[in-house]
Write a structure and sequence with these properties.
The chain is an all-alpha fold. It has 7 helices and no strands. The two termini are 45 Å apart. The structure holds zinc ion.
Length: 177
């Protein structure tokens, strides 16, 4: 027998799981092959080390704990389902509010002639001329800041609520095996 021992054979040899004939064959190879002798010795050492290690005892009441976790998950799942309509309604009304603020913002922009000042400001080729700076300051003064802030807040609220809604609707992947 010229071939080296396979990894399963080394395992079986160490565990003495081989028939006498096969074992004799492997013994014959091992007698002539220092490489395989070293592999068998290493496997034996590793097995001995593994046996000597204290086994981690499964914690007591493990089943009870797993049961509690599953119950918590089920409760969370039910809470999530009851929450979905509320989040959906909140998202809907927040969207309406945001649309309303956007329209208000548009009205404010028109009333304050922001677009006119913007057009005026961009019409100057030299942005640092006196006329251009006048237009810029007029533009900045015309900006309806409170409306802008309110609209941004409303849009952010819609974003957060929509994210929660998507999160609530997405089916959870249970990681239990
Ligand atoms: Zn060998």
């Amino acid at each position: 027998m010229d071939e080296h021992l396979t990894t399963p054979e080394i395992e079986q040899y160490g565990e003495k799981e081989l028939g006498d004939a096969r074992r004799a064959e492997l013994d014959q190879h091992l007698a002539a092959c220092p490489t395989c002798r070293a592999r068998v010795a290493r496997a034996n050492r590793m097995n001995a080390t593994l046996r000597a290690r204290p086994r981690a005892q499964p914690p007591r009441e493990l089943a009870a704990r797993i049961g509690a976790v599953v119950e918590t998950r089920v409760a969370q799942e039910q809470a999530r389902r009851t929450r979905v309509p509320f989040i959906a309604a909140a998202t809907f009304f927040a969207t309406l509010l945001a649309v309303w603020f956007c329209l208000e913002l548009d009205v404010a922009f028109r009333e304050n002639r922001v677009f006119d000042f913007w057009a005026l400001f961009t019409s100057y080729s030299d942005w640092f001329s006196t006329d251009s700076l006048d237009a810029l300051f007029a533009l900045l003064e015309a900006l309806p800041l409170s409306e802008i802030i309110l609209t941004l807040c409303a849009l952010m609220t819609v974003g957060v609520l929509a994210q929660q809604l998507i999160e609530s609707l997405r089916p959870r992947v249970w990681q239990f095996k």
